[in-house]
Every structure is written in structure tokens, then in C-alpha cells.
Write a structure and sequence with these properties.
Length: 130
């Protein structure tokens, strides 16, 4: 049968040879899955800056769905989402400033980290099926 290549981004495998691997790595599905994966690790400030430069998606605002999903060039965030994201960015900024000043800041608990991780994973899986 030969060797098989498993792509972690796309969660699929295929026969491993130069032609198949090049075709897969340059494919639209792989590039989208890879983008979604790396978007999970972007900081809130970068996401906020990007979303503020985009115009709102009319189709998403009217129906609650968009055919383009995460690949849409328009923003799918509501005003409330942007406010929450802005508050999160300000909180992270204050925390960074406190740490630079040398203030004693208690680290987050493992439960907080697990909760954030679960939210990110569920968001990624819901975007994968869009």
C-alpha cells in the first residue's frame, strides 16, 4: 500500500508522494483549515483591529448566516461582540502594564485556562463545518 500522509489541519490522510502532497498543501481546503488553526492563537488586539477595519456583513446581520463563513471579507461581529473584545483588550493591556511595573499579579487558574481552551476549540469546530 505504501506510506500515508496525515494532515493534522484537515484531519485526513492520503498516499504520500510528491504530487499528492503538493496538491494537498496548495489546495483551498487545506489553506482554509490551516488559517482557522492559526487564528485560534491570535491575540485579541489583532482580532479587534482587523474586525474594526471591516464593514459589517449584510447577509449575516439579516439572516444570522453567511455562505462564506470564516472566509467572508466582511465582519460577522455585532456591536456587543466588539465591545466585549475591546474590554478584553483593555484588560490585557492593564495586566501587562501592572506586570511591567512589578506589581504582584496572581496568575490565572487552570480552570480559567481550560474554559478558554474549550471555547476556542468549540468555535474552531463550528467554523470548520461552515
Amino acid at each position: 500500500m505504501g506510506k500515508r500522509y496525515f494532515c493534522d489541519y484537515c484531519d485526513r490522510s492520503f498516499q504520500d508522494n510528491l504530487h499528492n502532497r503538493k496538491k494537498h498543501l496548495n489546495g483551498v481546503q487545506h489553506l482554509r483549515a490551516k488559517r482557522v488553526w492559526y487564528d485560534l492563537f491570535r491575540d485579541a488586539a489583532a482580532i479587534l483591529q482587523e474586525e474594526q477595519t471591516k464593514k459589517p456583513c449584510r447577509k449575516f446581520l439579516q439572516t444570522g448566516q453567511c455562505d462564506f463563513g470564516s472566509n467572508c471579507r466582511f465582519s460577522h461581529m455585532t456591536e456587543q461582540d466588539l465591545e466585549k473584545l475591546s474590554a478584553q483588550v483593555q484588560g490585557e493591556q492593564r495586566l501587562r502594564e501592572l506586570r511591567q511595573e512589578g506589581a504582584d499579579v496572581p496568575p490565572g487558574t487552570i480552570e480559567d485556562w481550560l474554559e478558554k481552551r474549550a471555547k476556542r476549540l468549540s468555535a474552531a469546530q463550528s467554523n470548520r463545518y461552515l
